[in-house]
Amino acid sequence: MYSIPEYDGLRAAVFYDYISKEDGRFYYEKWYYDHGWEQTPDGEGWRRARYEYERPIRGTMYIHPRRRVAIYFFPGGTYDVFSVRFEKDEE
């Protein structure tokens, strides 16, 4: 488990739970679509779909709170998808 700073009063915990390759690919593609990219006609790469876009920063984990997943973009260009749970801090 990897804890990150609070999100809307909750603490996010990232787990290395099993997420199928197909589901992981879905969230990976969704990240690109959500950030202004589209797949190339051959389906092998990505290109900008609109003026405003965000490149993934390699070595960074992106968390999608609503979908409860995190995507880590490895420096070598691969990725992995993790499940995320939100918990209240116990004081």
Record the SSE blueprint:
Elements: E1 2-7, E2 10-15, H1 21-34, E3 37-39, E4 46-48, E5 60-64, E6 69-73, E7 79-87
Antiparallel strand pairs: 1-2, 2-7, 3-4, 5-6, 6-7
Give a written overview of the molecule.
It is a single chain. The protein has 91 residues and is an alpha+beta fold. It is 15% helix and 41% strand. It has one domain (2-87). The protein has a five-stranded antiparallel beta sheet. The two termini are 20 Å apart.
Q: Kindly report the average pLDDT value.
A: 77
Please outline the major beta sheet: 5 strands, antiparallel
> How would you classify the helix and strand content by structural class?
alpha+beta
Radius of gyration: 14 Å
* Strand residue percentage: 35-45%
Distance between the termini: 20 Å
H-E string: EEHEEEEE
The strands making up the biggest β-sheet line up spatially as 1-2-7-6-5
- Count of helical stretches: 1
Number of domains: 1
DSSP strand count: 7
Question: Looking at the structure, what is the overall shape?
Answer: globular
Poorly predicted tracts of residues:
none
Helix content: 10-25%
Keywords:
five-stranded antiparallel β-sheet; globular; 91 residues; 15% helix; alpha+beta; two-stranded antiparallel sheet; 1 helix
